[in-house]
């Protein structure tokens, strides 16, 4: 995925403009310093893969961006707006998120197209009457047809009756239905079988490229981290221990990444190596 120059809806060339800024970031958890003085700038349209062992701080970082955790130090900006102290609820209209668990991110007892309707109203007042408009059914049918998962004729099916892969793909559609300022992918394929995981990642790659979405993707799979995105960050113990831009990333191999992990011996574990 190569995004050098992307024109946003204001006509600005944003391929080199920073859309997300995390500066002097610090988090204390139960008296322990999880992050200290972390700085990370994400360019518009950039898909950044984040790898690291369990406990490296990957999910904590995404939770801080989404507003689950409020940092003890530093600031977080999305498209120039300081959201550091903004609640998770208020921040949700700017952020799309896909979780590791396919059961999250959707309303299991509601129909597929009802979930898509909810996603299309993200950030709007709950006092407004939410109802299907003319053309919604056909629009949603075309939307899910591109997933090639046989869902276009199952819009009336309850979400909790879908397979894990189908549900995760729908969650991705929902997270990107209203273009977010940033898309957060927290190990989105970890609970899927390899074949389904590969399909979901390819769909993700297509959507991110087409919409020029600024994206952070956590993965334990080194091959996926090398295959997808145009930047790779390695974390350990709440620190960024390596940051590879697009040209450097093209030259990376699993052997190089393993060597970097070996330099930080406590980061090495089978889950990171094997994905």
Q: Explain this structure to me?
A:
There is one protein chain. With 275 residues, the chain is of the alpha/beta class. It has a single domain (18-111, 176-274), classed as Rossmann fold (3-Layer(aba) Sandwich), CATH 3.40.50. It is 32% helix and 23% strand. It contains 10 helices and 10 strands. The chain has helices spanning 58-66, 88-91, 112-120, 136-145, 164-176, 194-211, 222-227, 246-250, 254-263, 270-274; strands at 18-29, 32-43, 47-51, 73-78, 81-82, 95-98, 182-186, 215-218, 231-236, 239-244. Strands 6-7-8-3-9-10 form a 6-stranded mixed β-sheet, sandwiched between helices. A hairpin with a 2-residue loop joins strand 1 and strand 2 (32-43). The longest helix has 18 residues, at 194-211.
List keywords for this structure.
alpha/beta, Rossmann fold, 275 residues, 32% helix, globular
């Amino acid at each position: 995925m190569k995004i050098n120059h992307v024109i946003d809806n204001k006509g600005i060339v944003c391929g080199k403009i920073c859309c997300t800024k995390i500066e002097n970031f610090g988090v204390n958890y139960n008296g322990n310093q999880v992050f200290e003085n972390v700085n990370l700038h994400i360019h518009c349209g950039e898909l950044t893969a984040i790898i690291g062992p369990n406990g490296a701080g990957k999910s904590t970082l995404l939770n801080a961006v989404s507003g689950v955790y409020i940092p003890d130090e530093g600031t977080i900006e999305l498209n120039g707006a300081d959201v550091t102290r903004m609640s998770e609820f208020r921040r949700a209209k700017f952020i799309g998120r896909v979780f590791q668990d396919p059961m999250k991110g959707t309303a299991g007892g509601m129909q597929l197209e009802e979930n898509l309707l909810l996603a299309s109203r993200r950030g709007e007042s709950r006092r407004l009457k939410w109802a299907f408009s003319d053309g919604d059914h056909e629009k949603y049918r075309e939307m899910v047809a591109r997933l090639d998962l046989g869902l276009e004729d199952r819009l009336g099916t309850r979400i909790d009756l879908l397979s894990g892969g189908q549900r995760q793909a729908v969650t991705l559609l929902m997270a990107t239905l209203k273009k977010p300022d940033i898309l957060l992918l927290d190990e989105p394929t970890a609970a899927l079988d390899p074949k389904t995981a590969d399909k979901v990642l390819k769909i993700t790659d297509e959507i991110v490229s087409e919409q020029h979405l600024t994206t952070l993707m956590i993965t334990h799979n080194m091959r996926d981290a090398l295959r997808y995105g145009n930047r790779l960050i390695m974390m350990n113990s709440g620190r960024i221990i390596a940051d590879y831009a697009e040209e450097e990333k093209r030259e990376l191999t699993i052997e190089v990444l393993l060597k970097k992990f070996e330099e930080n011996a406590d980061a090495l574990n089978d889950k990171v190596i094997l994905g």
